[in-house]
Task: inverse folding
């Protein structure tokens, strides 16, 4: 982890005016996880790589991916947080940039058709008894009860009894305890934990960005920290987190059903982390930029992509035989593309992938050179220049 982190920092600190990189990836646990998957991909694509060579190639490609990916999230996250002063350093960085762009296109399309802007979730008041869903914690508890209830019911009561025995009471269901109340408390516990996360994350972000000032003022001028994607959940409409999760789950379940119908050699089991961390943040960003419709449609298609992309890449590179694949959005879209390039171009493919990654921030800068760094230096001045509210 220290090796990859230091290499990424070296890539990211190579004279910011030239690289146009403004974010530092700080989420170490994600780096370790991605390094393990990238190691497998590289050995599949270029099996002739030796021990030292594979480390060097991994360091360069992952370092560039971390630096460029987190840099791409700055614009949508600064808008979402109104100048919160951080980027996202996780598994769906390219995905965040993509859904923000698509949401803007959807919003522009609505305006061209002389339609009023799509209502945001916070502007929608449900009628009658449905008003209970206007309260985020209630909506989350009910939806999680349905989601967890179905999964836990399929797994069966005996499974959780066995889990209680093997974990020595740390988790699972004790003999004689109510299975229904076990499902209920598990679901409500998730809603409570999410509420705690949303309440505490603003304090965390404030402390982190303040402590990062020493780095951004000296070592890496005009830079922001890249942090865990959960930091976005406290910004924007809280119900957007639940809606993004729900429609992403619907997309995943539809795609899983399609894999079964068409007898796919690999069946993907819906992962809770991709469901929540990818699609929930997509819902928050899309609702902020284009309203409730985008917060439903884009996470839905994201769920389909997560399953289909994971099935294709894990089957091709052989990871499906050994327990699964890292099914987050970038690793179901961007990295399969990189894998094709590496597989068929070999060592030259490493150069091509590195060149693509290096080119991205240059293109971002060329779109708006006047305000590119101002976005992180002084967000109020940036908004004034761009005519933003």
Result:
């Amino acid at each position: 982890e220290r090796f990859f982190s230091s290499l990424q920092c070296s890539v990211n600190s190579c004279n910011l005016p030239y690289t146009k990189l403004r974010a530092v990836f700080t989420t170490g646990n994600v780096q370790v996880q991605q390094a393990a998957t990238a190691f497998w991909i590289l050995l599949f694509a270029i099996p002739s790589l030796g021990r030292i060579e594979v480390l060097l190639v991994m360091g360069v490609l992952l370092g560039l991916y971390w630096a460029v990916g987190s840099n791409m999230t700055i614009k949508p996250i600064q808008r979402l947080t109104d100048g919160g002063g951080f980027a996202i350093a996780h598994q769906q960085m390219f995905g965040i940039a993509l859904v923000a762009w698509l949401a803007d296109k959807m919003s522009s399309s609505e305006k061209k058709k002389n339609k009023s802007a799509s209502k945001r979730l916070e502007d929608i008041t449900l009628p009658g008894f449905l008003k209970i869903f206007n309260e985020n914690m209630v909506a989350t508890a009910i939806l999680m009860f349905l989601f967890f209830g179905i999964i836990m019911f399929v797994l069966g009561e005996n499974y959780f009894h066995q889990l209680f025995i093997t974990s020595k009471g740390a988790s699972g269901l004790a003999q004689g305890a109510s299975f229904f109340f076990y499902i209920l408390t598990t679901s409500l516990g998730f809603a409570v934990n999410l509420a705690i996360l949303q309440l505490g994350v603003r304090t965390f972000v404030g402390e982190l960005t303040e402590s990062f000032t020493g780095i951004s003022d000296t070592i890496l001028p005009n830079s922001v920290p890249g942090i865990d994607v959960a930091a976005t959940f406290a910004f924007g409409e809280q119900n957007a987190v639940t809606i993004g999760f729900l429609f992403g789950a619907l997309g995943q379940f539809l795609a899983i059903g399609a894999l079964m119908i068409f007898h796919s050699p690999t069946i993907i089991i819906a992962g809770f982390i991709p469901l929540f961390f990818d699609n929930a943040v997509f819902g928050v960003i899309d609702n902020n930029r284009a309203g409730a419709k985008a917060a439903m449609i884009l996470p839905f298609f994201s769920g389909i992509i997560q399953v289909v992309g994971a099935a294709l890449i894990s089957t091709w590179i052989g990871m499906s035989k050994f327990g699964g694949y890292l099914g987050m959005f970038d690793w179901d879209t961007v990295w399969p593309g990189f894998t094709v390039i590496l597989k068929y171009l070999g060592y030259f493919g490493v150069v091509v992938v590195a060149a693509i990654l290096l080119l991205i921030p240059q293109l971002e800068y060329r779109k708006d050179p006047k305000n590119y760094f101002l976005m992180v230096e002084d967000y109020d001045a940036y908004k004034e220049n761009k005519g933003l509210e």
Observations:
- Strands lie at 23-25, 87-88, 224-227.
